[in-house]
């Protein structure tokens, strides 16, 4: 029986970087090559990643050390096709290990400047396209749009800088400070548990509700910002004072029943794209705030379009927009497990598409409680 070929050892450059090990098979079956990488950003398309490894059904393990340039909150983005796992100081911070089309996942962590963190990234490729990008947002270099001016139509065409791959200068194949006490595990910035808000009292019998004609008035749920207590006898349950809420009021998210929906207000994208316009982020910040205080709240993020153009392209665009909303929310305090993006295209209109004045109402993002 012929012996398996020995691994190919690529010459390591003198500069910093991270060590990559390339294997045959999706479960690290046979080591084929090792080499030092300048950063974690690869798009191999349909080509083999290194000589001796096929373009499909392979796996890679990158190991080394990350030394952050500043202390604070880092947002790591992983854009992959197919599976990825990431550890910092042996703590699993990202786990999306499955075949999937290209998608972006986000995690937030708290790191200390100058402190080496042991880094490991596992990746596997199933079939078709092959890519793996790790980018970051640094606390000392915030990604903010340029100042509004006539050159960018007062902010309408201004583009927020995109996260960049981790520069080589912050990646090491070996611990650059071996005598330093090992850093504690990075602090994942997941929403902290908080006491639940008071729930409304059980619904009263229909017979006691005031009626118009023969129909009872719909009972509305209380928004947490208008909760008040009224003096009652000890035997009477306390009830929140209820004020009418708009169907687009994000404060209603905390009180949505399973299956109920709310439409996000003032949410706009670039024409024909899934890029959020800068002025619309305030509405998403409110949603992220609600999700960070209600850990049990899970939402289906629905993208909708009008019916103008190709139906399949509309569905793809609506899916991309739903994913863009989820990406923003997870980068600002929400947990990935709380969100499920789905695009419906133009299949669920709420207004007449034949009327140009009403058609824009169909281009929307809706949240449905799961």
Automatic annotation (TrEMBL):
Domain of life, per the record?
Answer: Bacteria
SUPFAM superfamilies, A to Z: Anthrax protective antigen (SSF56988), OmpA-like (SSF103088)
Keywords annotated in UniProt: Membrane
Q: Where is the OmpA-like domain?
A: 258-370
**What PROSITE patterns does the record tag this protein with?**
OMPA_2, PA14
Q: Which CDD domains match?
A: OmpA_C-like
Q: What Pfam families does the record tag this protein with?
A: OmpA, PA14
Which residue spans traverse the membrane? none
**What are the PA14 domain coordinates in residue numbering?**
13-150
Q: Does the keyword Membrane apply?
A: yes
Protein name, per record? PA14 domain-containing protein
Q: Where in the cell is it found?
A: Cell outer membrane
User: To which species is this protein native?
Assistant: Hymenobacter glaciei
């Amino acid at each position: 029986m012929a012996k398996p070929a020995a691994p190919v050892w690529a010459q390591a450059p003198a500069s910093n970087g991270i060590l990559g090990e390339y294997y045959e098979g999706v479960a690290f079956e046979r080591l084929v090559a090792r080499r030092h990488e300048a950063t974690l950003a690869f798009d191999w398309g349909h080509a083999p990643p290194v000589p001796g490894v096929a373009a499909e059904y392979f796996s890679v393990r990158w190991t080394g050390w990350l030394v952050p340039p500043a202390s604070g909150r880092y947002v790591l983005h992983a854009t992959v096709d197919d599976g990825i796992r990431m550890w910092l100081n042996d703590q699993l911070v990202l786990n999306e290990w499955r075949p999937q089309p290209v998608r972006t996942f986000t995690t937030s962590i708290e790191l200390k400047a100058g402190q080496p963190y042991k880094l490991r990234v596992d990746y596997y490729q199933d079939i078709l396209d092959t890519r793996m990008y790790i980018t970051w947002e640094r606390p000392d270099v915030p990604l903010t749009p340029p100042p509004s001016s006539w050159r960018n139509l007062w902010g309408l065409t201004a583009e927020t800088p995109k996260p960049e791959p981790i520069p080589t200068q912050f990646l090491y194949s070996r611990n650059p400070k071996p005598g330093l006490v090992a850093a504690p595990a990075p602090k994942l910035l997941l929403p902290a548990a908080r006491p639940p808000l008071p729930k409304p009292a059980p619904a009263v019998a229909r017979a006691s509700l005031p009626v118009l004609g023969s129909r009872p008035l719909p009972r509305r749920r209380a928004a947490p910002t208008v909760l008040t207590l009224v003096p009652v006898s000890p035997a009477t349950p306390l009830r929140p004072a209820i004020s009418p809420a708009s169907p687009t009021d994000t404060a209603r998210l905390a009180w949505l029943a399973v299956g109920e929906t709310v439409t996000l207000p003032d949410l706009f994208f670039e024409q024909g794209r899934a890029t959020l316009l800068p002025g619309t982020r305030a509405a998403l910040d409110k949603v992220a705030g609600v999700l960070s205080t209600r850990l049990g709240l899970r939402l289906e993020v629905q993208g909708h379009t009008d019916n103008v153009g190709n139906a399949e392209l509309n569905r793809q665009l609506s899916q991309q927009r739903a994913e863009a909303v989820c990406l923003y929310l997870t980068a600002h305090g929400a947990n990935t497990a709380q969100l499920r993006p789905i695009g419906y295209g133009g299949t669920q209109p709420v207004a007449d598409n034949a009327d140009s004045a009403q058609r824009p109402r169909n281009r929307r993002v809706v949240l449905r409680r799961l």
